[in-house]
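Table 4 source record.
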Amino acid sequence: MKQQTFSDYEYENRRRRTRRDLFLATMDEIIPWNEWTEMIQPYYPQGKRGRKPKDLETMLRMYLLQEWYHLTGEGSEDAVYDSYAMRSFIHVDFFEEQVPDSTTLLRFRQMMEKNGLALKLANELAAILREKKLVLLSGTMADAALAAMPEGEA
């Protein structure tokens, strides 16, 4: 078990849990992570060439965050850096690793879709939720950004 940080202690002492925190804790509990990673493993890069691939379960968790909150690759990367609940959900310890970047997330998404895994996992999650008598109401998080206005337009 990893050692807790001051942020962990501070977060545990808050007055109430957010809806996002409750939602992600529930999903963490009901998803069969081992089964799903074993299903994806044959299609996931083995790291024989190029840089070492990110942990498969971390990538799956990031992918699910993107799906549930309608986030872009960059948006999900930023959201994990900003949200303690999301960072906890994907099990990233910034002392040891960084969040997968948007290009890595895009390649993972493409691999999931190309091999029919995205649809298969969506159907499995729907069945799990039906069994638990739950309904997934997907949420949104704004990806607000600023861009320079073209000169002459003020």
